[in-house]
Amino acid sequence: MKNFGNKDFFAVEYELSVPNAKGIEINNSIGCLKLWINGADMLSYRYNGKTLCFKGILFYIVDWFFDKMEYIIGYDEFPLPVEGENSLELTEKSNIDIEDETELDLWYTAKDRWVSNHSCFSVISDCVIPNMYFRRVNDNVEISWNNDFWKNREIEFSEEKGIFVLSLDEFKNVIFSFLQEITNDFMSIYENRSFAEDWKNKAFFELKISRDHGDQV
């Protein structure tokens, strides 16, 4: 597996299941992904007595990071008037009842928009992924997770709930390196590379795209 960062602190690892034939669509980009925090893989889980790693369509996760990076590392405050020390507290305390239907719709529309910009949990279907939030706090990035959702499905993550904080620079060094490398891999595998220019326009680093990269395979 390709590794970026220090697994004892913060790191990302991935391995793509390369298709046998070129031309397969990128939305079938199956692969294994690991997100390490303090020596534990936050994406691994136990089910039916077995420990499993995350395996799914990595394109959706990569696309989400490119699309939402401006909110993750930018200045995107929680939009609702509630107090909380972290993303978990903010989202939990914003679960309230409002009698006025219009106000209720506005409240939860604002919350849902923020959640979709800071957690990829809602965009990944048909696979097991933790309910994890990424947000900037001053010059740091806070990563928080709460996996109560999966308990009713007899799925147990190594860490059910937690908060981890690292510097903004440390986060960017790992994530940007991961995004650059997996983009290169996608370019090598898939004939349809229309995603590359879109990602390049959204990248907050110098994403190097070679138009003939795919011809190397």
Structure description:
It is a single chain. The chain has six helices and eleven strands. It has helices spanning about 60-70, 85-95, 100-120, 150, 170-190, 195-200, and strands at about 1-5, 10-15, 30-35, 40, 45, 50, 55, 130-135, 140-145, 155, 160-165. The strands form three sheets. Strands 1, 2, 3, 4 and 7 form a five-stranded antiparallel sheet that branches. It has a three-stranded antiparallel sheet with strand order 6-5-10, with no helix packed on it. A hairpin with a 2-residue loop joins strand 5 and strand 6. About 25% of the residues are buried.
Which structural class fits the helix and strand makeup? alpha+beta
Distance between the termini: 19 Å
Overall 3D form: globular
**Average pLDDT, to the nearest integer?**
90
Extract low-pLDDT stretches: none
Beta content: 15-25%
From N to C, what is the helix and strand string? Answer: EEEEEEEHHHEEHEEHH
Largest sheet: 5 strands, antiparallel
Rg estimate, integer Å: 18 Å
What count of domains describes the coordinates? Answer: 1
Number of strands: 11
- Tally of DSSP helical segments: 6
Question: What is the multimeric organization of the chains shown?
Answer: single chain
- The percent of residues in helical segments reads 25-40%
SSE layout:
Blueprint: E1 2-6, E2 10-16, E3 30-37, E4 40-41, E5 45-47, E6 50-52, E7 54-57, H1 58-72, H2 87-93, H3 101-118, E8 132-137, E9 140-146, H4 148-151, E10 156-157, E11 161-167, H5 168-189, H6 194-202
